[in-house]
Amino acid sequence: MSRRLARLLARQRFPRYRAAFGYGSAVIPQRSTAAPALVDAVLCVDDARAWHAANVLRNPAHYSWLKTLGPAAIATAQATYPGVYYNVTSELKYGVVATADLHRDLDAWTSLYVAGRLQKPVVWVASDAALSAAVTRNLRAALGAALLSFRPGHFFDERELFAAIANLSYGGDVRFALRAEDPRKVRNIVEGGLGRFRTLYGPHVQVAIAAGALVRGDFGLMVRDAAWCLTHVPETLRGAARAGRLSGALRSLVRFSSAAQTLKGALTAGPARAVGYARRKLLKGSGYPS
Cα(178)–Cα(261) distance, rounded to whole angstroms? Predict the structure, then answer.
């Protein structure tokens, strides 16, 4: 899939970007009967205004009416919380995020919008050392936060662990309330990508076991040291975690960021694209093929 995704992005003749990854059911197989219509991707760029200025010239059909206001307006729309600008074509839905905003989300979970996607298996097309290090910290933080959701002394298996990780950025997502997302999404992601989850989190689980924070026994895994888990949660959320309110804090964060991006997407995509994409999502949420 990495080569297919790279070829798809290359066909768009995008301006230079720092990093790119694909996600979603068209990139990572999920346990679902619905055939995905679009490939989802995110591009990380250093200068959003300059990038959009060049991309409008190369791919004017990708943009809605907003392109008539110029690249500064597009960059301003992108910078609006949660910091991502999406274009939708006949075969690709791609988001553009500024490098600085992506790093903040990975390290501080400012919105969990892109960081949450990177807590699940994705396919990378390009990256760099600084971003790879931030992604690794984000994965360790996701593991710590997920482990805090289990009761002390309670055994759980790897599927439950990976579901808890996947749910960090889906709990509270307004698309579920709007029936614009499959209610079985977390289960489908875990079951379809179980091997990828093991590859992604196996090293971090081993670190937690070596640190004495996690125990692997005959009945599964069990948290032994919640303090270790707490130290890996982003500092901005540690107060909520100490008070036992991490789950609620994350749900509020995801609810706000998903609502903001849903509204922004409806405004920036244009009426025709917004209606078409919403129809596909509603059909997906209803369990019917789109």
Answer: 14
d(CA 176, CA 170): 9
pLDDT per residue as tens digits for the range 191-221: 989 999 999 999 999 999 999 999 999 999 9
Which residues of 77-217 form beta strands (DSSP E)? 84-88, 92-98, 123-126, 214-217
Say if strands 214-217 and 92-98 run parallel, antiparallel, or are unpaired.
unpaired
State the chain's mean pLDDT as an integer.
91
> Rounded to whole angstroms, how far apart are CA atoms 83 and 140?
23
Q: In the block, which residue shows the tokens 């390009």?
A: 126
Other C-beta atoms lying within 10 Å of the C-beta of residue 251: 16
Peptide bond into 82 cis (omega under 30): yes
Structure token pair of residue 215: 């125990």
Using H for helix, E for strand and C for coil, what is the string for 197-255?
HHHHHHHHHHHHHHCCCEEEECCEEEECCHHHHHHHCCHHHHHHHHCCCHHHHHHHHHH
Instruction: Supply the DSSP symbol for 277.
Output: H
CB 99 within 8 A of CB 18: yes
Render pLDDT for 1-41 as a digit per residue (tens, 0 to 9). 788 999 999 999 999 999 999 999 899 877 765 656 689 99
Concatenated DSSP letters for 140-156? HHHHHHHHTTSPTT--B
Contact indicator for 217, 157 with CB cutoff of 8 Å: no
Element (H, E) at 45: strand 39-45
* Residues 183/77/112/32 CA torsion (nearest 10 deg): 30
Please give the helix or strand (H or E) that residue 64 lies within, else none. none
| Residues facing 94 on adjacent strands | 41, 87
